[in-house]
């Protein structure tokens, strides 16, 4: 599946970033006024993680954080750096 250990390490890092983003999104999902949108984005992120789409899972978890706590919140800022 992986052509080198570097590919494996990159994929592992993507997975770890996605899990971290989902964890933070779960922690904050009931904050703010757009909780239903935050929950939908979080559900999408979990499904994408399960499918192995780690980059997309990270982006959907980031969107959940944007809906729940906003883009100026520390948790969003931490994930936003990882998503680039």
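-> sequence recovered:
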């Amino acid at each position: 599946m992986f052509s080198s250990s570097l590919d494996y390490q990159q994929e592992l890092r993507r997975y770890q970033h996605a899990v971290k983003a989902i964890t933070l999104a779960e922690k904050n999902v009931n904050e703010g006024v757009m909780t239903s949108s935050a929950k939908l984005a979080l559900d999408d992120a979990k499904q994408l993680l399960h499918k192995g789409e780690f980059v997309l899972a990270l982006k959907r978890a980031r969107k959940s954080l944007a809906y729940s706590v906003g883009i100026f919140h520390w948790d969003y800022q931490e994930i936003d750096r990882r998503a680039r």
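The radius of gyration is 13 Å.
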